[in-house]
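Record pair follows.
FIRST:
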Amino acid sequence: MFDFFWNLASFIVALGILITVHEYGHYWVARRNGVQVERFSIGFGKVLWRKVNKEGTEFVIALIPLGGYVKMLDGRVDDVQPEDLDKTFNNKTVYQRIAIIAAGPFANFAFAIFAFYLMFLIGVPSVKPIVGEIRAESIAQKAHITSNSQIIEVAGQKILDWQDVNLALVSQIGETSFTIKTKEKDRSSPKTHTLNTSNWAFSPDKESAISSLGIAPFRAPIYAEFAYIEEGSAADKAGLKVQDKLISINNESINGSWAMFSKKISELPEQNVNLVVERQGKHLNISVMPALIERSGKVIGYLGVVPKSDPYPKEYLFELRYGVVDSLGQSLQRTWNLVVLSFNMIGKLITGDVSVKNLSGPISIAQGAGSSAQYGLVYFLGFLALISINLGIINLLPLPVLDGGHLFYYLVEVITGKPVPEKIQEIGFKFGTLALLGLMSIALFNDFSRL
């Protein structure tokens, strides 16, 4: 239940910030072009808070935080006094209207640059992309990628950490092949591997792009031994102790595998589980009932224990941090890469190279907001930047109900020298609304399927 409210609160904060940025872009450029703005609203529905400034603009926060709008004075829908005609949106030149409409999406891109800039300035704790296990008969194994090698390049893109790897791999979805360059400790020169991805099956709701290729990131060894018992937890109540070594679960030997034990426990919430542990050289039978908790939308069993593990090698850890000037260059590059990636994904959705099952809706966004906020400010900033870019790109799609649809009409006006007839605009608006509702329905269906 805590996860639900945390995700909801994080979602509202994130969406509130991004909607405000988007609508303020429209507002700021409209005011600079002499357009009277009547209302600046964050959210829809019942008004929770309002304030009117000296220019007569009503600023509003409404109940439903799933969007916003800037209402400008428009002679086509408002009764306008003759002396106010020069303040109407429709009486501005086509280039001024283009600037006002485009300002929203581009404000989102500018915010992403700012968020990434702060992220790189603060510093992001990162892990070098050292390969752990390679799954047998996987795409990675067939490409002869080996354990303990470091990934330094994917499809020509330079790689610094695992996030770079994941983003680069996602950009290759739909390609029949691409290369990964690795560096091994005992080799002075990098090695190039060509991956045959003609039969690459990637389901983002089930696994990451990395694991779908058969690659597991390096992890420090974990032992089937308790290093910590949470006070008051199911394990504590059952009498389990620190340094207890796990032998079996429900008469099935775990062979020293913590992963196997953890998986079994997660599958058995509120069920009696029989454990055999070794304590001071003796085997003990202990019955325990894992608690039921919700994590990332799934109900799982929880004992409240932490395994013993070796420390992660310090040489694999680093902080991705840049100076005042270099952070700007890195933030511009990261934003550009994500813009290009997003447009590529849209193109592949249209061509069928990427399944509509990959679309995510507000539930997935809420979960992402919650988890990134839990990890800390730099991760939340990165999440905000990513969603801000996607919000900007979605609004540039040429659907009449979105900014991109209006921009398309204005482009036609620039080319033909006259506005698109209102009848055609109305038809386009209805089509755009249906198309947008269809996309939202698919995204919501995917969200609920993942739950």
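SECOND:
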Amino acid sequence: MNSQQWIEKADRYIMTTYGRYPIVPVRGEGCRVWDADGKEYLDFLAGVAVNNLGHCHPRVVAALQQQAAKLIHCSNYYHIPSQIELAELLCSHSFADKAFFCNSGAEANEAAIKLARKYSRDTYGPERYEIITATESFHGRTMATVSATGQEKVQKFFDPLLHGFRHVPFDDAAALAAAVGPQTCAVMLEPIQGEGGVNVPSPDYFREVRRICDEHDLLLIFDEVQVGMGRTGKLFAYEHFGVTPDIMTLAKALAGGAPIGTMLAREKYAAAFTPGTHGSTFGGNPLVTAAAVTTVRVMLEEGILNRTEEIGEYLLGELERLKEKYPFVMEVRGIGLMIGMVLTIPGADIVKQGHARGVLLNVTHDTVLRFVPPLVVTKHEIDRMIAILDGIFAEIKG
């Protein structure tokens, strides 16, 4: 079928929870995808920071094929070798001692919320349950993670939200300190806010957050669902800020595109989860963990992290060049290959123009173009995207 036929069928059978663009991708390789009509696109969204190794990385594809022929799913009642191997890889390359596996970033954040409350209840009693999060944050679409999210547009229509979350401005340690009370048990923050507009904190912010958490014995939770797994040029984004969390969540890019979520924690806090306190039917099954093990190994073995830092600086510089050329570009900010371009005008039409000219772009927070291409993107591909964006910008009046 061609793209229009697929779209017509989708309109009949799929709920309209997404404002979908009229694009039907059917094949991908590296930083390129092709739609059902054969049109080629440069992908600078990467499945929203999921396809960090590009589309259909050969080693990840092989891992999925080989595992699918052996065992796709069993149950977490049993020990799963690839899950164990993945847990060891993640813990040995991070602050963490233990891992819990689920299916998505929202589920990983749910697990973090539950673990923080369980530990605090065991240690201090039931009165200590509140979690401080940031305005403009995004933590997921479940009821608990919607309640934790600091964006009204995500929360509206779903009242009453869950009790026990307090929101303070991001990158404002004084506001966070003032919000701590006798009911506070944890602080949950994204090291860089993605959906909130690619907001990068000041250099000392997280050191002060860590100090506040230590002073009040609060758990520090880092939501690295979007920024983790090499996106910033480090395996984990917290490595940029000179602090370590007590709990960290991962998902998006962990398994090369296969659905997985993970919560990592220090032993002291992980011990609060005992049999029956939490679980997941599909979490960490043989298929997705085989893909994730290979994804992590590729990240560590093939120089992806150093390359991301280098190529990210190149992309940032090219976007800065456009900023100097066009007055409606206010700011370019980011780390590694997580970059936002802040505009004085809405970005939705720019995204559509990009699609028409063969590049997949994204706008978040209405006026921030977000660039999260695969970490294997080349300078040549960046140059092609910049030329397209330059052409679009040149046609904007005012």
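COMMENT: The domain at 3-56+303-394 is CATH 3.90.1150.10 (Aspartate Aminotransferase, domain 1).
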